Amino acid sequence: MTAAAVAAILLPVMSLAQQRGPVTNLPLPRFVSLKAGEGNARRGPDLSHRIDWVYKRRDLPLRVTAEFEHWRRVEDMDGQGGWMHYALLSGVRTALINTDMTALRAQPDADARELALLERGVIGSLQSCESGWCQIDIDDLQGWLPRAALWGVESGEVFD
Questions:
Q1: pLDDT(1) > 70
Q2: How far apart are CA 129 and CA 134, in angstroms?
Q3: How far apart are CA 123 and CA 144, in angstroms?
Q4: Which of 34, 66, 90, 138 is a plausible cystine mate for 124, CB 3.0–4.6 Å?
Q5: Could you say which of 76, 92, 108 is where a domain stops?
Q6: Number of domains in the chain
Q7: What's the pTM?
Q8: Do residue 107 and residue 68 come from a single domain?
Q9: Is the pLDDT at 4 greater than 50, yes or no?
Q10: Among 126, 129, 133, 127, which Cα is nearest to 108's?
Q11: Signal as a keyword (predicted)?
Q12: Considering the domain boundaries, does residue 156 fall inside one?
């Protein structure tokens, strides 16, 4: 498939308005996580395309921005990415700490007891998000973080 043919299919999908994927009918963009310990992000949606990135961190949150057959266009926190086969991705929601020494709190309140200080780059499993705070599991700890300290959840997104 030529790049022009792929672009013609994807142009309607690339808008950031709340759209649905043509394959899954799930919202675009949306967050997923890397299921495998390693995954190749390719220049296009096919094994013949060049590998641009190799992700080597299981549970890394990625944003899906487009779909084509069994392929998903993903980007990481830095806006880098490419096309990955859907089998490498999971619907399990994770988030990456994007600010250094972020306090994990016992409750969704800036004055709540501090459970731990988290370094930038730590990944945890999202449990729920509400009014500016997200509940997250990191190893054996469960607590609350300000949404602004996380990458892997949209601003204003609420889920439980």
A1: no
A2: 4
A3: 14
A4: 138
A5: 92
A6: 2
A7: 0.85
A8: no
A9: no
A10: 133
A11: yes
A12: no
